Amino acid sequence: MSRSPARWPLCRGEGTARIGNAAVMAEHEYDVVVIGAGPVGENAAGYAVDAGLSAALVESELLGGECSYWACIPSKALLRTPQAVADARRLPGVTADFDPGAVLERRTSFTSNWDDAGQVEWAEGAGAAVLRGRGRLAGERTVEVTGADGRTTTVTARRAVVLATGSVPVTPPIPGLDTVGYWGSREATAAKEVPERLGVLGGGVVGCEMALAFARLGSRVTLINHGPRVLPGAEPVASERVAGGLREAGVDLRLDTGLDRVEGSGGTGGTVLHCSGARAGTVEVDRLLVATGRRPNTDDLGLDTVGVTTTGRGAVGVDESGLARGTWLYAVGDVNGRAPLTHQGKYQARIAAHAIAERAAGREPDPAPWSEDAATADHHAVPQVVFTDPEVAWVGRTADAARRDGLDVRVVELDIAVAGSALTADGWSGRVVAVVDRRREVLAGVTFVGPGVAELLHAATIAVVGEVPLHRLWHAVPAFPTISEVWLRLLETYRAG
């Protein structure tokens, strides 16, 4: 089942969406009003409609949001063809190449050329009303929607308002940055041409993925990172291998290096970067991508009209059902700061919609975790993939995070070296790190790093979420010859320990 336009799944959730009794109660009045129509907001509205409630989606930009048009989907489209060619070249006798222009065209096809007509068709077909404009709280259960023409419409939510406004880029206060035409992640993923020289500031997920994409598309890329390693939230071995992969792709990786100021380079139209630290000096680029993180998008949401304050980074605090205020205001996805990932936001949206429907029926949702109707969102078993080369895929806690949480852990780390990996490509190299909770003998977290390891992740997610005892995993026999045989190697190593 798919909650999506017919052309492709993009970032939609699961479940059928058409409910005949989800009619609007009165003009500008709905059971649920969702501010923000990205994949998280779409899921919140769609699942509310599934429960028999009326819902409206308020959006000032494109329905489908950041993920569909400027983040997850276009970035992976930019990465996929060059990665397929790199994988093919790792086999003897294969000579493969690609056309960068065709990669950009394919990327554009996945965004429907930044036209959201298909998304609107899905939403309206699912029974949700689409309200174009900037949504803002104006009191309890009240939302003001200001359209592009400046006109404001007041909308009332009979049951709940859901904030699903996502996140926005954080721009560092670097002297001269406001005088040059730098890129954010949107400009990078929507680029119409490949710059000859690209500077990337930031070694997080966006910085690493876009540095790799543009290096393979033909840019001469310089990545500047103030810290000693890229992907600082991942296991150290993953950071080390991704750094090696970036260098192998031709990226000039400058760790422990700061960007002190930037300036235009005169008649060339480029930008001069003045760096300090380990790799001090100047670098001239044609484009600069600033990828220094994101923060919850709570600007001008009218939170003060309902007495809601935010954290230091601007997140809206919520309980495990996504409830932020009283019994009517919810916040799901990046805006609550818990797990800023599309799939986790959709998960939160499903739980929040269920809680709204239960409370609308006069019942308090069951707080017990793990049932299909649970009103508790788990945030310890969060899966994430970084689509670099090698890929990084992890779920649950890293070893350091587990120790900070007070767990007594044993860490099992070994090379992924099995028949399946050897057959996949000559010189295939990977590593796995498993964090075991000693007291219960279950996995607290698993990290894979290697080519194509994203497809190993869901098995690890099931093991972590299901808290499957290691003695039970021993009987989950991996097929031969696949890379999944690494599970057997992990268990053997743990037993021998």
Any overview of this molecule?
Strands 1, 2, 3, 4, 5, 6, 16 and 17 form an eight-stranded mixed sheet that branches. A five-stranded antiparallel sheet has the order 18-19-22-21-20, with helices on both faces. A four-stranded parallel sheet has the order 10-9-8-14. It has helices at residues 39-50, 65-69, 72-89, 100-110, 117-125, 185-189, 205-217, 236-248, 342-360, 399-404, 419-424, 457-465, 470-473, 486-496, and strands at 29-35, 55-59, 128-132, 134-137, 142-146, 152-163, 167-169, 197-201, 220-224, 252-254, 257-264, 271-277, 281-285, 287-290, 294-296, 323-325, 329-331, 383-386, 391-396, 409-415, 431-437, 442-450. Helices cover 28% and strands 24% of the residues. The protein folds into three domains: 1-64 and 116-169 and 293-379, FAD/NAD(P)-binding domain (3-Layer(bba) Sandwich); 177-292, FAD/NAD(P)-binding domain; 390-496, 2-Layer Sandwich (Enolase-like, domain 1). It starts with 28 loop residues before the first strand and ends with a helix. It has 14 helices and 22 strands. The protein has 497 residues and is α/β, with parallel strands linked by helices.
